[in-house]
Specification:
Layout lengths: L5 E2 L4 E3 L2 E2 L4 E2 L4 E3 L2 E2 L4 E2 L4 E3 L2 E2 L4 E2 L4 E2 L4 E2 L4 E2 L11
Parallel strand pairs: 1-4, 2-5, 3-6, 4-7, 5-8, 6-9, 7-10, 8-11, 9-12, 10-13
């Protein structure tokens, strides 16, 4: 975990790297992923084998997996991408 990185209540992180200033909100699940410097991962978002670039924002309730890459400073709105059919 990088300097100044924060993890919200109930978030789970496994086999992943959070760079300086990264923010992971409550209930997010991050597995085998990289969250860039100053990037934000929204509440209840699931990342598996994903790279989130520096300064990018992944809104709440997204599900990114299988090698997805989010460009630096990009923004994904809440609920924009889901692979499972649970919602």
């Amino acid at each position: 975990m990088g300097e100044g990185a924060t993890v919200g209540e109930g978030a789970r992180i496994s086999g992943s790297t959070l760079l300086d200033g990264a923010v992971v909100e409550a209930g997010a699940v991050i597995t085998d992923s990289l969250v860039g410097e100053g990037a934000r991962v929204g509440a209840r978002t699931v990342l598996t084998d994903t790279v989130v670039g520096d300064g990018a924002v992944v809104g709440a309730d997204n599900e990114l997996r299988d090698g997805v890459r989010v460009w630096c400073d990009a923004t994904l709105p809440a609920g924009a991408i889901r692979f499972s059919s649970d919602q």
